[in-house]
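Suppose a classmate hands you a notebook page containing two proteins, each written out with its sequence and a corresponding row of structure tokens. How would you begin to make sense of it? This section walks through that situation. The first entry is reproduced here exactly as it would appear on such a page.
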Amino acid sequence: MSPLPSQRALGDLVTDVLREMITGGRFQPGQHLKETELADALKVSRGPIRQALARLEEEGHVELRRHRGAFVSTLTRTDVEEVHTLRGAIERLAAGRACTRMQGAGFAEMDAVLEQMKSVDTKIDPEDAVRLDLQFHDIIYAYCDHGRVQRVWESIRGQVTVFLRARNASFPDFLEVGYSEHKELRDALALGDPQAAQDGIDKHILGAYERLKRLNLPDR
């Protein structure tokens, strides 16, 4: 018989489940997340639920309001600007390092993702578009050889997922730009020049940011 998970491990598991439900659109922005209902649904006590909600607040997915409980965070212009600028800073660093470390194996991984993007010739599910997009960028972080940068990326990856989903829902142009824009970034990385890689990142993520700024979002 497998040992029961520790309270900490159970809290981590519940966090992963709730994070996936939020980023996957199961819960809507502003929705009240009631501890009792979540505990019943996941068949756990309220302790791991509280741990998970506290962690998700740190990640920006949830707002804990005094005497009112937990609510799914609502996307704001401030959120978009802050996550974009933070992502830009760490991904420039990651790309500048990864471009000299990826060698053949890393580019083979990128090419496999690009092939999936290229093979899409009909309407793509928004979730698949987000998955392929993040899968490509995960490779850059995997090869940057910088543990702290990777941890920062992991801490904001869920929020980037939410932003990409909103971007794809409002601007469903992945078939036109998904492959071409990522191929252009791949080619910049392949030059092995940190400055070219960083310039490529700047250009690449600016497009998504400009689209998000056009959404009718609250200021904060």
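The notebook's second entry, a different protein, reads as follows.
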Amino acid sequence: MCGRYVMARAVGDLLAEFDAELEDEVSIPPSWNVAPTDDVPIVLERLVDGESGNRQVRQLHVARWGLVPSWAKDPGIGSRMINARSESVLEKPAFRKAIQSRRCAVPADGYYEWKQGPGKSKQPYYVHPGAGHGLVFAGLYEWWKDPTWPAGEPGGWLLSTSILTTDTPPPGSESTVFGKLTALHDRVPLPMDKATMQAWLDPQADDPAGLVDLVRAGVKDVAADWHVESVGKEVGNVRNNGPELIEPVEALF
């Protein structure tokens, strides 16, 4: 959780939405079925040298979904690191360095979750915000150097990312969406609003525990307008990828 999501916005739209720039030209084809180890867009902020000293720059990068710690022997470990539990991210060896200064935002249009039915049957659902805006999840990023890369040769670096998760907000009288989310899964990807994202991305912020608490505290407000819609079983196959995957269908059960 989350194990599949949708990211179908164009690079230019992302740059405008996040007021970001590119360090290098990137290609990010739209995907309605993002799966672990796929390349995905992330937004991060860096301190770069300028004529008048360091300046803070927001950039759009492409990273592999599934964080590969710098100490990993090979990138295969990343497939098990697509999510990071926000409650333990400060202590886990794979994430505790990244949470200090390598925080990012992971844009999405929505994500998928599956509900277990009778026997082996499962019903997929598409969770997405109200019309007119997308999602942005709290994430971490890491750089990994391929030890087999020839010494002195440029390249050999892998940028990877992980999405933070938290407990699904309990249902309340103010909205029915949280009851639907709870029925699907006890975890949700950790969303952010613009103000929270600004604080989360700040590379000079030195209170990661406080930032985690800040993002977790805003989950219910950010998710209040989410919709939960049943979709076709075709999304279960990673080879299927198109806008038809998010079209609502009648639930199987």
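A careful reader of the second entry would note: The CA atoms of residues 108 and 180 lie 20 Å apart.
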